Amino acid sequence: MTAELVRGQNHPLPRTRLEIRVSAGTPVVAGATLGDERGTVRGAEWIAHPGSPQLPGVEVSQQAAADHRLAVDLEALPAEVHRLTVLLALPVGVGGPEKFGAVPSPFVAVTGLDGEEIATFTMTGLDVESAVSALELYRRQGAWKVRAVGQGYAAGLAEMLADQGLADAATLAGSIQEAVTRGLARSVAPPPPRPRSGDRVRPADGPTGHRPAPPRTSPAADTATAARQAQASPAVQPPGPPTGPAAPPHSPSPPAAQSAEPPAPGGHPTGGPADGHAGGRAGGPIDYAHPRRGHAAPPSPPPTAPEAPPGQAPQPVAGDASGWSMDERLYNQIWGMFEDLARAVAAYRSAVDFAESRMSQELDRALSDPRDRMGGAGDGARAQARAKRDELTGRAREALDRDLGQLAAEAAVVEPALPAAYAGWDNPVWHAHRIPMEIPMALRVGDLHLPERTGLRIPLLVRLPLERGMWVDSGRTASEAAAQLDSAQLRRLAMETAVTHAARLLAVYPPGEFAVHVIDAAGAAAGPLAPLMEAGVLAGPPAAGAGGVASVLAHLTRRVDLVQMAVRAGAADSLPPDLDTAEQLLVVNDFPHGFDDRAVNQLRYLADEGPSVGVHLLMVADREDAAGYGPVLDPLWRSLLRITPIADSHLADPWVGHTWTYEPLTVPPGSRILGQVLAAVAAARRAAGR
């Protein structure tokens, strides 16, 4: 049975030798890119296009044409390839259309060698775009799937290649277009014409449209196609080995999402999922290479999932992603889970919207005559339209439940295997935690979930060392949930959240490599700060009053200035002996209480310049309290990742546009784990003489 995909939906591939058939109604350039575990194209040798039509496992057409057949052999792809993306672009300089909005909606079909369709996708809604990522074939838990993408690019082929991580995308895009316009490639016979029979609906008649695939012409033609696929692999040498450690799928950042108010540049929500992915990313690929992780040895092979019975999804395995260590593989796997959840829900919502729109259109057509609105004819039309709507949404829900069930099973396997830095406070791994000698790749700062299944939580990870600070919102107007608490209770919860985050940072850094300062100008946070004070892990007593605020800010500002000058001059050995070069975290409670104009400017300076030299902010504040400063503080808020002390739907990823609910990490009631962890931090410092 053919799967008619909508944008974002995926479908398993039952075989590995495939044809991808393209029908565009106008001449287009067809190509394919190979991507690693991040989806990044490592170089021009990973791109099949008319000027270089063959790569290991893939062959594309050598000219612009209205119809294409791309041959794919997934088993022949290099081992480091995890994603194959089919690209379409309008040729330039030939007098044809300049945007996809002026041509029929392109149609793609994934078929077997026998011509049987596996999945189809019609790319509707394109406008000014002149290039589009049509489909992705990607590997997940050892199995291959196809995903409908339909991501258009107004700036054309160069923008599309740059979005996949190619360094010199403009040059390659120009050479591809030049090869097409000059006719450098050989001619190939077009595929047979489509049948004229009316047994299939037109593209405009359905949610994805459905154009019939060209019929098989003869056994000889099929044999020729198979021969091309068999010979595609040795035509070009495989791409070179990876140049660095594996990293998460290049995606929108989540799981890190951008704060919806206001959006901050470049973050994951996937931390990410907010660092951007294929939904309109800007600024090029993000370098996820760990700054302190060695590159000397090749990655060890990830665990393999046991063989699944035919027709069933493979059993999930913790750490089945690529990486140089188990921590890195788990980190990458969490990114993959975030991506799958985001896309599965996007496909479901798109299908539901289509079903509702289709019902409205059918009712409008059926009841356009006032005489049909009353009586049995009108009631029958309404019932028929609703039944069709319910059938479509039911099928979409079945597909979503299947995908969510697989993700839930994966989460149940992954969560117990997480290291302490990625684990919640209720995970037993914290009871056996030892202060490490090397910082981990990331730190968990909460969970993310969507309303379609609130019990399916994806860890929100931020990379270490921190690239941006955090703001714990203590305002009652921040959300409906916050409005139900009184101000004092909410401020206490916000400060307790900040303390637990500071404790986690202290616990995952080597002894003496992370210091925590606290500004509590009014002395209102004595209760929440008690665990840090009793363990003796603060850099000094909490700063109180205007004098204390000025002293701490002057100390950290001096550190930023000195380290920046030393870095620029290449004279790190000239730093004063009393300067603490450890990472510094400044926790500010009840901002702007105790701050004058000079202190506010210093705080903004630390937010802007501090992260690059190891000084970070953790603000506990109600933004309305600082309204008197006007827009002067807007850059400060934008530079921080906003989190909340209670569950709140405020994180939005710019990739598929979901609003994610953030769940803060809380210590289980009655648990002593926080005190145990801080005691271990203090003991490790004493043992290290720091």
Short structural summary:
This protein is α+β, with helices and mostly antiparallel strands and 690 residues long.
Based on CA inertia axes, which overall geometry fits? globular
Helix content: 25-40%
Count of β-strands: 22
Quickly give the structural class. Answer: alpha+beta
What characterizes the major β-sheet?
A: 12 strands, mixed
The CATH architecture of one domain comes to Sandwich
* Amount of beta strand: 15-25%
Unreliable spans are 184-300
CATH superfamily of one domain: sav2460 like domains
What's the number of helices? 12
| CATH topology heading of one domain | Lipoxygenase-1
**What is the CATH class of one domain?**
Mainly Beta
State Rg.
Answer: 28 Å
pLDDT averaged residue by residue: 79
Distance between the termini: 66 Å
Explain what this protein looks like in three dimensions.
The chain is an alpha+beta fold and 690 residues long. Among the domains are: 3-226, Lipoxygenase-1 (Sandwich); 469-647, no CATH class. Helix content is 31%, strand content 19%. It contains twelve helices and 22 strands. It has helices at residues 157-163, 169-181, 219-232, 326-366, 375-417, 480-483, 487-508, 526-535, 545-569, 597-609, 634-638, 673-687; strands at residues 3-5, 10-12, 17-35, 47-48, 54-55, 58-59, 65-73, 83-89, 107-111, 117-122, 131-140, 143-153, 258-259, 442-449, 458-463, 470-473, 514-519, 583-591, 615-621, 641-643, 648-652, 659-663. Strands 1, 2, 3, 4, 5, 6, 7, 8, 9, 10, 11 and 12 form a twelve-stranded mixed sheet that branches. The protein has a five-stranded antiparallel sheet with strand order 13-21-22-14-15. β11 and β12 form a beta hairpin. α1 packs antiparallel against α2 and α7 crosses α12 (673-687). It is globular and about 75 Å long. It starts with a strand and ends with a helix. Mean pLDDT is 79; it is low at 184-300.
